[in-house]
Design a protein that fits this description.
This protein is mostly beta strands. The chain contains 5 helices and 14 strands. Strands 5, 6, 7, 9, 10 and 11 form a 6-stranded antiparallel β-sheet that branches. A 4-stranded antiparallel β-sheet has the order 8-12-13-14, with no helix packed on it. It has a two-stranded parallel sheet with strand order 1-2.
Length: 268
C-alpha cells in the first residue's frame, strides 16, 4: 500500500502464507483494490501478469543477515522480472564483526550449566556454546574496532555469494576481557535521490534483528592495541538451507592470553 500510495502504477504482492487473505480485505478497505494485485504462492512457482517490473521491494533480512533469509528468492525474482537498470529496495547490505566483554550474560547463558543447583550439567554447556545468541548487546560492551566480513550488492550478487569466508583482525581499544564476537549488519537504499539506510549495530537504535553473539569457550585477557585475528565462514546447512553453519577460527597471541582454536556454530 505504501508503494501504491507513493505513485506506483501497479503493485504485484506475492506471499505464500494465508495472511494474504487478510491482506486482500485490508487493501479493499483502504481503496487500493484497483492498484494492487495479490498473488498467493512461492515466487519460484508463480507467474506474473506482466513480463517485467521496474522495482522490487523485499524485507528479506534475517538474524545474522542471512538466517532464514529470503534473499535467494529476491535474486530469483530479480533475474526473472526486473528490467535492466531496475531498482531493488534495499540494494546494499554489509555485515560486520567485533569483540565484546560480556561476562554476566555468558555466565547466565553458558557457564550456568556447570552447576545447576549443585548438579554438573556441563554436557548441555557443550551444546549451548555452539548456538549463537541473538540478543541486544550494550554498546559499552564492545571492546574492539568493527570490520566488515560480508559486502553484498543485490544488483549483481549471486546465490553462491551467500556462502562466504572472510578474514578479520580486531584491535582491542582498551584493557579488558573478550568473551565473544558479535556480528551485525547494515542495509542501504542507494538508488534514490537521497540515499538512506539503517544499522543493527550495538551503537544504533534498537531493531528486532538485535545482534548475533558467538561466545568463545575461553575468555581472553586483552590489552589495548592487541589484535584478535581469525576467519569466519558461513554456509547454509545441507539438511535445512534456512539454518546456517558458521565456523570461526580465532588466533590471539597476547601478553596475558593465547589462543589458536576453531569453533563450529549452528544458527537455527
Amino acid at each position: 500500500m505504501f508503494a501504491a500510495q507513493a505513485g506506483a502504477r501497479h503493485v504485484y504482492a506475492v506471499d505464500c502464507s494465508s495472511i494474504i487473505d487478510q491482506a486482500k480485505r485490508i487493501i479493499q478497505l483502504n481503496g487500493f483494490g484497483d492498484k494492487i494485485t495479490l498473488i498467493k504462492g512461492k515466487v519460484e512457482e508463480i507467474n506474473l501478469p506482466v513480463e517485467k517490473v521496474d522495482v522490487i521491494i523485499s524485507e528479506w533480512m534475517g538474524y545474522f543477515l542471512l538466517y532464514e533469509s529470503m534473499l535467494d528468492t529476491v535474486l530469483y525474482a530479480r533475474d526473472k522480472w526486473l528490467v535492466p537498470n531496475g531498482i531493488l529496495f534495499p540494494d546494499k547490505a554489509i555485515m560486520y564483526i567485533c569483540a565484546i566483554e560480556d561476562a554476566q550474560v555468558k555466565t547466565e547463558r553458558i557457564d550456568f550449566w556447570d552447576d545447576v543447583y549443585g548438579f554438573d550439567m556441563s554436557p548441555i554447556k557443550e551444546i549451548a556454546i555452539k548456538e549463537p545468541v541473538v540478543d541486544v548487546v550494550d554498546a559499552k560492551a564492545v571492546i574492539s574496532n568493527t570490520v566488515p566480513i560480508l559486502n553484498l550488492d543485490l544488483l549483481t550478487c549471486t546465490k553462491e555469494d551467500l556462502s562466504f569466508s572472510s578474514q578479520f583482525a580486531l584491535r582491542a581499544q582498551r584493557d579488558d576481557y573478550a568473551h565473544g564476537l558479535v556480528a551485525y549488519f547494515e542495509c542501504a537504499f542507494t538508488q534514490i535521490h537521497k540515499p538512506l539506510g539503517f544499522s543493527t549495530a550495538p551503537f544504533a537504535q534498537y531493531t528486532h534483528w538485535k545482534q548475533t553473539v558467538f561466545y568463545l569457550p575461553e575468555t581472553l585477557t586483552v590489552c589495548e592495541g592487541e589484535v584478535i585475528t581469525g576467519k569466519i565462514s558461513c554456509t547454509p546447512n545441507p539438511k535445512n538451507n534456512r539454518d546456517l553453519d558458521i565456523a570461526l577460527q580465532v588466533h590471539f597471541d597476547g601478553r596475558h592470553s593465547k589462543l589458536n582454536e576453531s569453533y563450529d556454530y549452528r544458527l537455527r
